[in-house]
Specification:
34 strands; Neuraminidase; mainly beta; five-stranded antiparallel sheet; 3 helices; 2 domains; five-stranded mixed sheet; 477 residues
């Protein structure tokens, strides 16, 4: 798919009216060229908003950003919504899809919340604070913004909400604990919210009772309404999400870095769209460096994925952007009334093997951890990140590649093995983490995914070695 980039804001009133009618009404027309792949994936008019930089600011923490948009219905591909270079953080399309809410955040100053129309007109400040979520009141269809205030760098002590057209009408939503800025999502009935309380503790809150339940450890949480609340949290490897059916407790892992051409690379900014079957993210992050998600690069694009009917996998992908700069923090609006994909699943949610299990963090290891005792030689040591480069994480593992010289316990048929080993603990680099190629060891390892307590830990991994299963070094000193 070739996507044309428009170099100036789209301000023509007549074209804007036609765009709104095509994208938000019941009008039907064939879409060719830019937008056709995305429309084929969703089956409905689709809009995407994101933040763009030169590739050096994937976290959108600076002031050299622009706000970009994409609409399957106008045939124009990528275009600038707001071209003034400044701070744009976590843009969100409103429930009707015709406006964008974003935050301006210059650390360490207080954040501010803004709104702009889809065509780039009508930009105005709504309120002080950080826009964490948008929501549509089922009682009257009114659109609301959830705002975080009283912040530290990444967390907020208070969450309030207000109608987007009456920002002075603030209502207190949460002040029981700190809440992290990313991944706060509210159920359609407004009763529960998913998020980090704060990071890395991921879970779902009862907003009426001001209580929350921890469901795991990770980042970039998201929440949707399937047959009930369906929650995910992103793992420290930046490659998978753990899904949790909130009402039943069933959980399972879904790989989300399998878009064409990713080859095992890291991804970032995963977010559910307004349709439960679809997610957006940015990637691939494969430029190396001490922390690939922060290295960014001009190869990072926006992608849209479609979950299978049981949410056990991502069954199809579409690439939204195609340019020579860095794209991040996407949000997607789909005309759900015209989508052929049901919002509520009729069958099972999760794979057949999904079951209610304990949340990660317990000390026990399952008996099927696949323990191996091996004589190995280090063939490709991973680069060791600095403690500063992994912040806000305090711990990190790196994946080293070894040649298998002999199997002393267990069964392993490959000649190479990938082993995750601790490199940073409590923000200190471990001396034993720095080893030279050719060094030989006897190691005891388990399957990495058998250790649920590692889900929320940062894992630095070379994408070139993604074809082998991953093991975890449990060798006793």
């Amino acid at each position: 798919m070739t996507l044309a980039r428009v170099a100036r804001p789209f301000h023509c009133a007549l074209a804007s009216l036609a765009l709104l009618l095509a994208g938000c009404s019941g009008a039907t027309r064939t879409v060719d060229g830019p937008g056709s792949d995305v429309r084929a994936l969703t089956g409905a008019p689709t809009r995407v908003v994101w933040v763009q930089s030169d590739g050096s600011d994937p976290g959108a923490e600076g002031t050299q950003l622009i706000l970009m948009g994409f609409d399957t219905q106008d045939g124009k591909g990528e275009r600038v919504i707001l071209g003034e270079r400044r701070s744009y953080h976590t843009p969100m399309l409103t429930p009707r899809g015709n406006r964008i809410v974003f935050s301006s955040r210059i650390i360490p100053g207080p954040p501010e919340i803004f709104m702009v129309n889809w065509d780039g007109t009508g930009r105005r400040k709504l309120a002080d604070g950080f826009a964490m979520a948008v929501w549509q009141n089922p009682a009257d269809g009114g659109e609301w913004v959830y705002a975080g205030t009283e912040n530290t760098k990444y967390d907020f002590a208070k969450v309030t909400r207000f109608p987007i057209d009456a920002p002075d009408r603030r209502e207190l939503v949460w002040n029981t604990s700190m809440v992290s800025m990313e991944g706060f999502r509210v159920t359609a009935d407004g009763r529960r919210a998913g998020g980090m309380w704060p990071w890395p503790d991921a879970g779902v809150a009862d907003l009426a009772n001001k209580t929350w339940k921890k469901l795991g450890e990770g980042c970039w949480t998201s929440l949707t309404d399937a047959r009930g609340p369906l929650f995910w949290y992103f793992d420290g490897a930046h490659r998978n999400v753990t899904m949790v059916d909130v009402d039943t407790g069933a959980r399972w892992m879904v790989n989300i870095n399998n878009a064409p051409g990713f080859n095992g690379a890291e991804v970032f900014h995963p977010r559910w769209t307004n349709h439960p079957r679809f997610l957006s993210l940015s990637g691939p992050y494969n430029q190396g460096g001490p922390n690939q998600a922060r290295t960014g690069g001009p190869q990072v694009e926006v992608y849209l994925g479609r979950f299978s009917a049981d949410f056990s996998k991502v069954e199809a992908w579409a690439r939204v952007t195609n340019n020579a700069v860095g794209d991040s923090h996407p949000d997607v609006w789909i005309d759900v009334a015209r989508s052929p994909y049901p919002q509520r699943p009729s069958g099972r949610i999760g794979p057949a093997s999904a079951a209610a299990t304990r949340a990660p963090g317990g000390p026990s290891v399952p008996p099927d951890a696949g323990q191996l005792v091996l004589n190995v030689r280090l063939t490709r040591p991973s680069s060791i990140p600095t403690p500063e480069s992994i912040l806000p994480y305090r711990n990190a593992l790196v994946v080293n590649e070894y040649e298998v010289l002999g199997v002393l316990e267990g069964t392993y048929a490959e000649r190479r093995i990938l082993i995750a080993q601790w490199a940073i603990r409590d923000s200190r680099t471990l001396a034993e983490a720095r080893q030279s190629a050719g060094a030989a060891f006897t190691l005891t390892v388990h399957r990495y995914d058998a250790h649920a307590e590692l889900e929320g830990e940062r894992l630095i991994r070379d994408s070139e070695s993604s074809g082998l299963p991953l093991y975890y070094d449990v060798t006793k000193p």
